[in-house]
Amino acid sequence: MHNHDQASARKSLALKVIALAIVGTISLVGPYLYKKMSDSGFSSNAPDFRAIEDVKEKKEAFFSFLRPSVNNENTRIVKERALLTQVAGSGLSNVNSKDTASLKRLGESYNLPVPPTGMDDGWLTEMLNRVNVLPEALVLTQAANESAWGTSRFAIKANNYFGHWCYTKGCGLVPSQRNEGSFHEVAKFSSSQESVHRYFMNLNRNEAYAGLRVIRAKLSAQGKDLLTTETATELTNGLLKYSERGSDYVTDLQAMIRHNKVYWKK
């Protein structure tokens, strides 16, 4: 499993602060989302991917298992973004008290609190950059890469498909090859859905991936469909800090997206 930008926390206090932000509290909408899906019969029980010997069958099973979680996250984000685009169209001066309260909660969720002076165009623009969808080809490819197609110890025992770290003792699983002096653990999640949710929030609010959000905003401004395989490939260029391998990691992701194109919906 590849370590993402949090691995560099050992080298820089500044990046360590960023990493801590990644594994902070789940957004305010998260707990409700998980409960709602549980109530509707959504299952987080993963197949035993290790037992599937046929490569094509394993890939199909892995993508089919996580795809509903990706769709759930994008559905949530579309609803959140609708309020932001509505405000952008009508003007901040016309926001009512109910929407103001909702926007403040949303800002907290995305680590961008409303300024003490109140909402302004700069805040709204940055929120629109953060609150946006991610293509399934990107999400599922990173999940496959980071979890060894769902067969890693962390995927099986911690529902962790993206290599997320945490920094409180007992918050997750201790890596077997953790460097001396390191104190991180691999975060443990209550479900695969929570793991996918944390991944989305990671890319959408962590400063390390501001570049990805810039790429996405430019594509959106050009009228491009953000959920296509082409977009997924473009967005990988904003993931240089996800792994210590940098550009080699990005190249690997792009190759995986290309080699598995038959599995993508767009």
TrEMBL record:
<dbReference type="Pfam" id="PF01832">
    <property type="entry name" value="Glucosaminidase"/>
</dbReference>
<keyword id="KW-0472">Membrane</keyword>
<keyword id="KW-1133">Transmembrane helix</keyword>
<keyword id="KW-0812">Transmembrane</keyword>
<dbReference type="InterPro" id="IPR053195">
    <property type="entry name" value="Bax-like"/>
</dbReference>
<dbReference type="InterPro" id="IPR002901">
    <property type="entry name" value="MGlyc_endo_b_GlcNAc-like_dom"/>
</dbReference>
<feature type="transmembrane region" description="Helical">
    <location>
        <begin position="12"/>
        <end position="34"/>
    </location>
</feature>
<protein>
    <submittedName>
        <fullName>Glucosaminidase domain-containing protein</fullName>
    </submittedName>
</protein>
<feature type="domain" description="Mannosyl-glycoprotein endo-beta-N-acetylglucosamidase-like">
    <location>
        <begin position="126"/>
        <end position="261"/>
    </location>
</feature>
